[in-house]
Amino acid sequence: MISHEKALELLKRYNLPEGLYLHSLAVNKFSVELAQNLIKKGKKVNLALVDLASLLHDIGKIKAKEKDEDHALTGANILINENLAELADIVRKHRLDSVLGNDSPLTIEEKIVYYADKVVDQEFLGLEKRADGWKKRYPNVDALLKKVYPKIKEIEKELI
Q: What is the pLDDT of residues 62-73, one digit of tens each?
């Protein structure tokens, strides 16, 4: 695995704009704090995986947008190509709709990164405020939010 600093360099190499870079840093900070709290409660969490995957979870956003691809899948493929395959599943499973299908986050590390991405923008907002932002950006997201909301709340109960 790489260091936190090398992961930051990787984000810059993949040209994340400032807003997305700040989102990645905020998701990382919240994910690491959440993981540390779970470890204190006796849960077994791979903190290094959470640290790196949360930092790199949106690494595929720009490349995916250019090619009209799924950013989570593109990000997972980038990580595999960068010899970081151990992070790929966590990144692949962070999409909003992942909880509805075969890509549902299952490991504690996958759940932490998934949940953190759903409650953090460039700061902690909580699910409701974060969803308000999605509604403004994606006008057709309401039906999907109704489906994923209960599943996100289940993950929240498990983690918090």
A: 999 899 999 999
Give pLDDT, residue 139: 84
CA 35, 1, 7, 155 torsion: positive or negative?
negative
Which three-class secondary structure state does DSSP give residue 82?
coil
Give the pair of three-digit tokens for residue 82. 């960068």
Q: What proportions of the chain, in percent to the nearest 5, are helix, strand and coil?
A: 70, 0, 25
The answer to whether the predicted template modeling score (pTM) of the entire model surpasses 0.85 is: yes
The answer to whether domain 4-159 has CATH 3.30.70.20 is no
- Quote the crossing angle between the two packed helices 85-92 and 71-81, to the nearest 10°: 180
Locate the domains of the chain by residue range: 4-159
